């Protein structure tokens, strides 16, 4: 996958659990898990904004482009 999701890393850095972030963002733990595993087909800008607000980070801290070639 060309886009790598670094949400687990940010959760560790902020010492926050997935269920806590899901509750703060207003999404289910299952949907957060799908996002963390890179299995999501899309992410709403409002969800990304909420994640960044609660983890006090930038979108680039969570999403990383990697060249698979």
Automatic annotation (TrEMBL):
Domain HTH cro/C1-type: 13-62
Entries under Pfam families matching the protein: HTH_26
UniProt-listed PROSITE patterns: HTH_CROC1
InterPro entries recorded: Cro/C1-type_HTH, Lambda_DNA-bd_dom_sf
Signal peptide coordinates: none
Superkingdom of origin: Bacteria
Membrane-crossing segments per the record: none
Identification of the protein by name: Helix-turn-helix transcriptional regulator
Taxonomic lineage from the root: Bacteria, Pseudomonadati, Pseudomonadota, Alphaproteobacteria, Sneathiellales
């Amino acid at each position: 996958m060309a886009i790598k999701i670094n949400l687990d890393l940010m959760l560790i850095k902020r010492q926050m659990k997935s269920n806590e972030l899901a509750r703060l963002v207003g999404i289910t733990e299952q949907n957060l898990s799908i996002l963390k595993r890179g299995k999501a087909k899309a992410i709403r800008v409002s969800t990304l904004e909420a994640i960044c607000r609660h983890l006090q980070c930038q979108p680039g801290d969570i999403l990383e482009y990697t060249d698979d070639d």
